[in-house]
Design a protein that fits this description.
With 264 residues, the protein is an alpha+beta fold. The chain contains five helices and ten strands. The longest helix has 14 residues. This is tRNA pseudouridine synthase A.
């Protein structure tokens, strides 16, 4: 076995939680795919396997779409022993491309799983309403040069919080369950920047981006505030807003039992 360093005499299976940041611009999303090497999961597995000297599987807290970014994606990985200090944050990071970085790594009890153990997530969607897109932020914000009624967006956001069937707010028609709980949707910002923050138990395919498009239509005045709840009841995708682009969306943090959003 080459490359991976164990503590001597300790080859018990160990589970690690990783907190990962990435710029999703160049990638086809989180999940590994057979037809491309350009996925976050695939690259992480390749680099960690190379450093460890054997094949590993990396499990994420959930999928992010092509072009979506992360400040706090969480993943779990099982190794054949306890890694020495700096294995992930130094050794593996040296192998990763510059747009993917392991921010933190910690030992967990065996049985921890980044997706199955998660109790909630926070996403942030960034919008640029200036007349011209910002030179430096254009890959990380949605340029939407419109005058928006923030108060109306906040009212609509309040109607969307709570536990609902969000069948209207997903592009995947065969979801086994569309019931989700949104704890909070916060709309705010200043100048030409608006951020929409979403906190909830979990989110359906394209759900955050559809919610964002719906709130933007409310902000423009082309959609009535109460339409957001009418769509919930109708469970009809055609009754909600457009799909906002991936580039403005960040997976900000994943919550686990020992640290819930309520403790923030």
């Amino acid at each position: 076995m080459t490359g991976f360093l164990f503590e001597r005499g300790d080859e018990k299976m160990r589970t690690y939680r990783l907190v990962i940041a990435y710029d999703g611009t160049a990638y086809q999303g989180w999940q590994r795919q057979a037809n491309t090497e350009m996925t976050i999961q695939g690259i992480l597995e390749s680099c960690i396997s190379k450093a460890a000297g054997y094949a590993v599987e990396v499990n994420g807290s959930g999928r992010t779409d092509a072009g979506v970014h992360a400040r706090g994606q969480t993943a779990s990985v099982v190794l054949h022993g306890k890694a020495e200090d700096g294995f992930f944050t130094e050794k593996v990071n040296k192998l990763l491309p510059p747009d993917i970085r392991i921010r933190e790594a910690g030992l967990e009890k065996n049985g921890f799983h980044a997706r199955k153990s998660a109790v909630g997530k926070r996403y942030v969607y960034q919008i640029d309403t200036d007349e011209k897109p910002d030179v430096f932020d254009r890959r990380y914000t949605y340029h939407f040069p419109k005058k928006l009624d923030i108060a109306a967006m906040q009212q609509a956001a309040e109607l969307l919080t709570g536990t609902h069937e969000f069948a209207a707010y997903t592009d995947k028609k065969d979801e086994t369950s569309t019931k989700r709980t949104i704890y909070a949707i916060m709309v705010g910002g200043q100048g030409g920047r608006i951020n929409i923050q979403y906190e909830g138990t979990g989110f359906l395919y394209h759900m955050v981006r559809i919610l964002t498009g719906t709130l933007l239509e409310v902000g423009m005045g082309t959609r009535r505030i109460e339409s957001v709840t009418i769509a919930l009841e109708a469970k009809d995708r055609t009754k909600v807003g457009f799909l906002a682009p991936a580039r403005g969306l960040f997976l900000d943090e994943v919550y686990y039992k020992e640290k819930s959003w309520k403790e923030e």
